[in-house]
Design a protein that fits this description.
Elements lengths: L2 E4 L2 E4 L4 H10 L4 E7 L5 E7 L7 H4 L4
Antiparallel strand pairs: 1-2, 3-4
Length: 64
């Protein structure tokens, strides 16, 4: 989880789906590097075009 430290205290940052989608548009982000851990604990990553991400993907996940 992303966090910031304010006055020596760790504060968790939370972003809504709309916050993320707005940031992608506002900053003209073209690609997303998705990082995750597989079922056996192996680290994986994949890169997708930002215009492929939809609000529904936050709930339903991405297709194979």
């Amino acid at each position: 989880m992303p966090y910031k430290i304010t006055n020596g205290k760790i504060e968790q940052l939370r972003y809504s789906v709309d916050d993320v989608m707005h940031k992608l548009y506002e900053d003209k982000i073209k690609f997303l590097d998705l990082q995750f851990t597989g079922l056996m604990g192996s680290f994986h990553h994949t890169t997708i075009a930002a215009n492929m991400l939809r609000k529904e993907n936050f709930e339903d996940g991405l297709p194979k």
